Task: structure prediction
Amino acid sequence: MEKKECINVSVSSAYRLIHPMHTMLISCVGRAGKPNIITLAWVMPTSISPPMVAISVGPSRYSHSLIEETGEFVVNVPTMDILKETFFCGKVSGKTHNKFEEAGLTPIPARKVKPPIIKECIAHLECKLHSHMTTGDHTIFVGEVVEAYADKGVFDGETYDIEKAKMIFHLGGNSFTTLQPKVFRP
Result:
């Protein structure tokens, strides 16, 4: 049997082997009406019919309590054009900061949910909370997608134009990348 040379990775860092991860800006709002943004790379589709998306949020995060309060959130897709703003929204707490104002991002009313969309993002998935579960030190919120739309010219209904949509992917820590403008099909 052949051997393969590998390095050991601690199980507490094993999640880094799954990176890079597509980075999203999640907008939410509490009962008091103050909107907030959290930067997340732990976002994934979980169902096509009905359409559902899961986000993983630590319970100490301000957005965690807002999503629990209202049961709604929006998954906004940022691009490299707002990398600094995206990083900022993941580093400070909405408890003490108005992230929209301080990051210079523009809230626009969503079509079907209370949290606003982020104008500077290229796509938006409006979600109503379907369920949630605790997984170790995070909560997975599963939202049913009740509305979805993207900027004209970046998405054709099936795929992104990656030359126009320079999406953000988190490598780990403060390192990010984007897709190269080359598509491979097997």
